[in-house]
Amino acid sequence: MAQFCKKCGTAHTPDARFCDECGNAVNAAAAPAPAPAPAPAPAQVPMQAPALSGVKRRHVILAGGVLAVFIVAGGALAWLLAPEAASASSFGRAIDAHLAADEAARDKLICLTNLPYQKEEIRVASYDTSTRQWLDALVRSGLYTGPVEQSSGGWIAQSQFVYALAAPGKAALRGDKLCLAKGVKVSKVSGYEQVREIGGQPVAMATATLVLTDEAAWLAKSADRAVILQRLPQSDLEVRLPLALVDKQWQVTDRAQLNQAAMAMAGAMGNASGAQGPGMLDKLKGLFSFGGHPLVGKWKSATGEVLEFTKDTMIDEHGNASQATFASEGNVVTVVSEERGGVAMQISLSNSNNTATLLLGGMPIAVLQRVRD
Fold it and tell me: Are 358 and 370 in contact (CB under 8 A)?
């Protein structure tokens, strides 16, 4: 069967390769199409967790936030429940709180009671120059007017000086006391570095230096301010107070509570020695003698309590007597009274033997002054 050239239309045989007329290639097999290049292998990417939906993501964030809150709250709770550390700030806070709450204790520091200030007039004998000088300072400060000299009359005439209470003086009165300020606060405190345990309770004696707060205007501008301040019961505005750790906070306590704690400690020591044989108290008793000792006599504390000692007895401020043993070593006398629970008390005497310091558990509790009959 004849075939025709696709270029010029001339017939050619089926096996011809070129057209005899125009030379065009005929019956040439179509060149195979080039094979497509292989697709590059996909890059190896690490497997990833399937993405969280928005709801799940919010739940994870919320759970993390709740956990963080619990961690922070737990740390805060642990901090709140921890006992307050003994420090200048904690002792200062405790003393400030005590003086703010205890009006009587505060007034003892900032008020004067050396004269009957509640009277409209104070009469002073002419020979009482000390009282007159003091009242003259109050006159210059504007609290009193005068003085006006008067004669007492009678067989032996005697002149007196009359000082009348002025309005600023009346404003400064609190009851029968002349007060120099509304309050005090701690400016410096020590003793927090000497904490001891009595009856299992941490205690310390703190010494605090105070400053006046809301000082009276008349005092602040008085030329006699320094003289007037010297008349305060604690002219140096320094106090010594016992503190104890109560309910994990330092608080001002009183010496009676410290004594109770010391008695409890001594009672525990006594029970232990009874159960375990001769102990510390027995050893102390073995050293004691009933002879004379330097404490014999009466002693008075700054707050007015009186202790009396004989060669074998201790008598408290209420007149209760109890048998006691005394041992002297240098200027320190150790006293033990079985009738008072076997409490061991030490008294350190001054070189003159006229003053002494009472110690319980090694801690100073009170200063005693010998009473001369």
Answer: no
CA distances from 190 to 30, 51, 329 (A): 111, 63, 29
Residue 31: predicted pLDDT: 47
Judge whether 258 and 330 are in contact, CB under 8 Å. Answer: no
pTM of the model: 0.53
Residue from 255, 226, 227 nearest 240 by CA: 255
Give the dihedral sign, CA 104/201/314/352: negative
CA distances from 1 to 4, 10, 57, 359 (A): 10, 14, 79, 143
Question: What pLDDT was estimated at residue 283?
Answer: 39
Q: How far is CA 223 from CA 142, 147, 172, 218, in A?
A: 11, 19, 17, 10
Q: CA triplet 243, 249, 250: central angle to 5 degrees?
A: 15
d(CA 84, CA 74): 18
Pairwise CA distance, residues 361 & 258, whole Å: 10
Residue 138: φ, ψ to 5°:
-70, -30
For residue 290, the model assigns a pLDDT of 33
Residues of the chain with pLDDT under 50: 30-31, 79, 269-270, 272-291
| Sole residue written with tokens 């020695």 | 273
